[in-house]
Amino acid sequence: MTALLEVSGLYKSFTISGSRALVQAVNGVSFAIQPGETLGLVGESGSGKTTVGRCILGLLDATDGSIRFRGQDITLGGRRSKSRGKMQLVFQEPAESLDPRQRIGRSIEEPLVALKFASNERQDRLLESIGLVGLSEDMLNLYPAELSAGQQQRVGIARAMITRPELVVLDEPTSALDPTARAEIIELLQRIQGELGTSYLFISHDLSTVRFVSHRVAVMYLGMIVEQGDAAKVFAQPVHPYSVGLLSAVLLPNPKLKYETAINLQGEIPSPINLPKGCFLASRCPLVLQRCRDEMPPPENLGGGHIVHCFRHQEVAALDPTTDTFTRFQEEAKRILGVFPVEPQLDSAAAQSEN
Ligand SMILES: Nc1ncnc2c1ncn2[C@@H]1O[C@H](COP(=O)(O)OP(=O)(O)O)[C@@H](O)[C@H]1O
Ligand code: SF4
Ligand SMILES: [Mg+2]
Q: Taking the model in full, what pTM does it have?
């Protein structure tokens, strides 16, 4: 099966005005997203998640690498004509994408104006789109400030869905919401995916949400995906020291369920202006060897699309092979909130396919 989206060896660096220094924000990222699949992209702030999303959407030009949509090379902005409207973005802050002086209805149909749709067709799509996200027609004349944050995010989703996209990049779509609104938006996104088969790149630093919505997950550190694979597997048994460290840093609602791990990451994150020559985690990793400082660990495919960059992943896997405390944490969170939807199901062929 051809992947819906295929990102291969993506690099993006930024120049800093008044300086010759380069910020190396994305450093050789490769992944694929299948039709109807959600890939969760996790990592701390500054790891390059938003930059990856913006390169995919053509809002930034990649420095190197390729981006293919349905097999067609769209790396350069000029080649994007056929993918226009097929990929959309939902922001963290719904207010960011909504003009405060513009009525909701007008904001939602704006992407169709840009695509030069006739007004009667825009009206039909507008009604379809608000129906999909559960907004009522009388809300179309309101201004963004008259809506709750959850309703504003529904507007953001309606605006993205109005072009009937095949892929939606969701950049921290629930991070600004309270737990109830967050659960409602997650449920909405899963229902849309179930009904329409839309693929999602779900960018978040919130691991518990990512665990719920993602079929597969990719863990980013300093512009690299250090581990990717089936979400249930990576969360239950991460094999990269950084993934283990990230999971152990999750704030658990019940302190008795603290994720216990033999890996504690110490020290400062290196600057993306001055990256080390070997493994980017070498200065913080308790398992570091001299080899890690000298050489970048290559990607290793452990099967089923589970890919890791670490010379010592086998030892990490052997550290604590049975404790799946993170799943216990999820169950606890589900019990406390009592509102999360069921986990996504995907047929096994799609779930196992990989770039
Ligand atoms: N326009 C820009 N100019 C210079 N540096 C940038 C720019 N955008 C992002 N960066 C830098 O690139 C790195 C990755 O940023 P970003 O993609 O926003 O990370 P994330 O979304 O994971 O928080 C950070 O070091 C950030 O400061
Ligand atoms: S390659 Fe070495 S330094 Fe890098 S994560 Fe693995 S053990 Fe740690
Ligand atoms: Mg970001």
A: 0.89
